[in-house]
């Protein structure tokens, strides 16, 4: 049985009552969908406040793109991009997640008051576990085969779902052995992180085969797995992303990470109403 109370820094999030929506704020120049739109601090803050007004449950802020082939960013640049945004948002009564894999960045943003670390390297960088163990932040463990520079170069698995499950379970075991409580941990199967197109859709179909003890975060909004099926036009990416998000929720995801908060929440309301009809 999955943990239904998720400890996330200053917040305790109920994962039983409804799906939780995490909104994306990319303070980057090269993210695959909205790179450059919010690199300006003021624009990023305005966008974050817009997502809050639309009803987002968690803000996920990233300052380095992890799309396939993206350029790496130094810790100093990442921190300089993140801290002003965090400072402006941390008192707005909304959990703040930071998308980073660098221990030095983790420490800076946790000291600044963030609530969740979302790490595509799954806290495997030396020092990461030691840093997060000193705080009460939530942790999102992401599966990735390889690393962003080459992860999409012909990914292969012996057994896709079993391999992902084993990877996530081993990382979570290391976290809990270090003293991190289970109710601080989320798992993310890593859509697009070393996966073929068919792999991504097989994961959606088999989400409920992941370890049921830990909540699942699904992040597939606007990714190529969507555009490769429905086309690259914005409206198609939106409708395709919402369809995939609803399928993830149906198959066990507790949190969905999205660009289009308002439209996703509207779709979830309809889905929830249908579920309540006798």
Describe this protein's structure.
It catalyses: (7,8-dihydropterin-6-yl)methyl diphosphate + 4-aminobenzoate = 7,8-dihydropteroate + diphosphate. Belongs to the DHPS family. This is Dihydropteroate synthase. InterPro entries: DHP_synth-like, DHP_synth_dom, Dihydropteroate_synth-like_sf, Pterin-binding_dom. One of its GO terms (molecular function) is dihydropteroate synthase activity. By secondary structure, this protein is an alpha/beta fold. It has one domain (13-276): Dihydropteroate synthase-like (TIM Barrel, Alpha-Beta Barrel), CATH 3.20.20.20. The chain is 40% helix and 16% strand. It has nine helices and ten strands. The chain has helices at residues 41-54, 75-89, 103-111, 128-132, 160-177, 197-205, 224-230, 234-250, 261-276; strands at residues 5-8, 11-14, 20-26, 58-62, 96-99, 116-119, 138-142, 185-188, 217-219, 255-258. The strands form two sheets. An eight-stranded parallel β-sheet has the order 8-7-6-5-4-3-10-9. A two-stranded antiparallel sheet has the order 1-2. A hairpin with a 2-residue loop joins strand 1 and strand 2. Helix 1 crosses helix 2 (75-89) and helix 8 (234-250) packs parallel to helix 9 (261-276). It is globular, with a radius of gyration of 17 Å.
């Amino acid at each position: 049985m999955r943990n239904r109370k998720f400890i996330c820094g200053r917040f305790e999030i109920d994962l039983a009552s409804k799906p939780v929506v995490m909104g994306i704020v990319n303070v980057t120049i090269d993210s695959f969908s909205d790179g450059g739109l919010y690199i300006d601090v003021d624009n990023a803050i305005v966008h974050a406040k817009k997502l809050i007004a639309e009803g987002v449950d968690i803000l996920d802020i990233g300052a380095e793109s992890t799309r396939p082939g993206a350029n790496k960013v130094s810790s100093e640049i990442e921190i300089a991009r993140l801290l002003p945004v965090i400072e402006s948002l941390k008192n707005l009564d909304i959990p703040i997640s930071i998308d980073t894999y660098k221990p030095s960045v983790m420490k800076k943003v946790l000291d600044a008051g963030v609530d969740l670390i979302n790490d595509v390297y799954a806290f495997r960088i030396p020092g990461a576990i030691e840093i997060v163990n000193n705080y009460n932040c939530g942790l999102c463990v992401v599966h990735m085969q390889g690393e962003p520079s080459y992860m999409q170069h012909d990914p292969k698995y012996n057994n896709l779902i079993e391999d992902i499950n084993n990877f996530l379970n081993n990382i979570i075991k290391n976290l809990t052995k270090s003293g991190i409580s289970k109710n601080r941990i989320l798992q993310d199967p890593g859509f697009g992180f070393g996966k073929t197109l068919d792999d991504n859709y097989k994961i959606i179909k088999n989400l409920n085969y992941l370890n049921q003890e830990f909540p699942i975060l699904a992040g597939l909004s606007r990714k190529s797995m969507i555009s490769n099926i429905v086309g690259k036009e914005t409206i198609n990416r939106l409708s395709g992303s919402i369809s995939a998000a609803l399928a993830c929720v149906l198959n066990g995801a507790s949190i969905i990470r999205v660009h289009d908060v308002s439209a996703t929440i509207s779709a979830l309301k309809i889905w929830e109403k249908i579920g309540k009809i006798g």
